[in-house]
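Researcher: Before we compare anything, I want clean individual predictions. No alignment, no superposition, just each chain on its own. First chain goes here; please echo the sequence and then give the structure tokens.
Model: Echoing the first chain and its structure:
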Amino acid sequence: MIDNYLLEELVTFASEKTLAKTAEKLSVTQPTVTRGMQKLEDELGIQLFDRQPNRIVLTDTGKLAAEKATEVLAVNRNFVQQLQNYAARQSVIKIASIAPGPLILLRVRSASFSTQISIDKKFITHDQITTSLLNNENSIIISDQKIQTDQIESRYLGTENLYVNLDKFMYLANSQQVSFKDLAGLSFVVLNDIGLWKEIIQKYIPNAKFLYQEEWAALTEITKYSSFPYFSTNITTVNPQQRTSNDDRVRLPITDEVATMTFYANYLKKQRKSLTPLLNEISQNWPNLS
């Protein structure tokens, strides 16, 4: 069995023509390349190189060997890639989040991902992130924190932006956008399980009242027969189950800085390579502002 690195040296030499350039291209020393070429000839029992003073070139057999080596390396790379892709499809990547928005996106888009995922329905708190990752309880935790340690790193995924849906006859509905202060004193119908957003709306909307509902169906029913405003985001609108039918409310963006939440994928550095394909797919599926 010929080692791949020997074939790689042969193919590189055929392309670069000199030992010095081959060594530079492969980031090894020139003596390492020389030894590798000799070893390849010994293992094949064939002369591949014509060695002359101050010059070494491929023989005709060596040129053919380089062509065949190129084909073998391509087959080997394809072999490895296919196995890695298959293994990724067979494995299940566990994901948790500190907020509901990313989990909604993952549930809706999961069928299009090349990797199987398992979503933790319980929200993770900030102080649980590091322990959960180090204990391999979750492979990815989506949070609003960018973490960088010796073992953990983060990757930007996207933002979630809060909107308010107002009755079209309200004076505010004529605006292009609103602030939390503009919403002071109003009563809102709100899903109870909204993670960090719950604290934000309670803190930043003065004198507001919140009618919390456990189920989206109940919230939808209330909005049908009342003029209560409710909140949505650029993420919640991707879920068909969280779209209110026959709703003529006006959807306005909230301009306060805290009405935009930036999300990162936190994961172990040693798992970066295996998680990158899934993280790419999550980023590509992240909703734009609307």
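Researcher: Okay. Second chain, same rules.
Model: Second chain and its structure:
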Amino acid sequence: MNRTKIEYLDYCWNFVTGCNNWKDPRICGGGGSEFECWAKAMAKRFGRSFEPTVHTNRLYEPFTVKTPGTRIGVCFTGDLFADDINPFEKKWLPIDDLGLVECSLRDSVFSIVRANPEQQFYFLTKCPWNLSKWGVFPDNAYVGISMTGGKSFPDCFALINFLKVAQAKHKWISFEPLTTYIPSLLALRAIQSVDYVVIGGFSNLSSHVQPTREVIDMIIFVAEKFDVPVFIKDNLRCRFPEAAGMWPGKYRERADKSTRSSAFRQ
């Protein structure tokens, strides 16, 4: 399990790589209709397939992390909840003293998350309609949806509703890459349903239009009305230089690695 440059995480646990969300612009514009997905671009760069693949040999990686309170991103180079992934698919896993044991992907993942209660596991998807298939998430799971702002209003409200009914103790939303204007009503509905918000732009600042300062300010304004922490990613420093990598408002604190995600800690 590798350390990550994603500011609000410490590690990424990528036992699922690749996804086909980009093939449907209604789900994700990462195939080029809105932007180029960084994970897809990296797979292409190194000549790797981007078809959804489950790597069972990586499932036990969280047990190698010994520091309590570590923030672990789950499958950030794929989408664990994509239509291609069957949570009930049986996998053969090596269990000490038992040899190979057959269990579903969902049970395997959740048992490992529960076996590491001192860590925080951040799940993120663009397919929240599949969250219900996974049932009740462990208490140390943080379940989020990714929204770019490019979808029609009804679609966005539907995504939020799927997250709202998901059986998870902690929920969050990532507006990244924020590609266009977010209506205040949509932001209000989204932020009312979550515990944390992340706002980010495009990783390649030179090749894409970044969201306006007004859009960022509006999301922050709505979030602070509901006492919801907002994290501004470093790639928005061109629009929000005084707060990039920081928690605005009451959460405004220096974004060194030890404090930049303190509001995520429970």
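Researcher: What stands out in the second chain?
Model: Residues 248-266 have pLDDT under 50 and may be disordered. Additionally, The longest strand covers residues 141-147.
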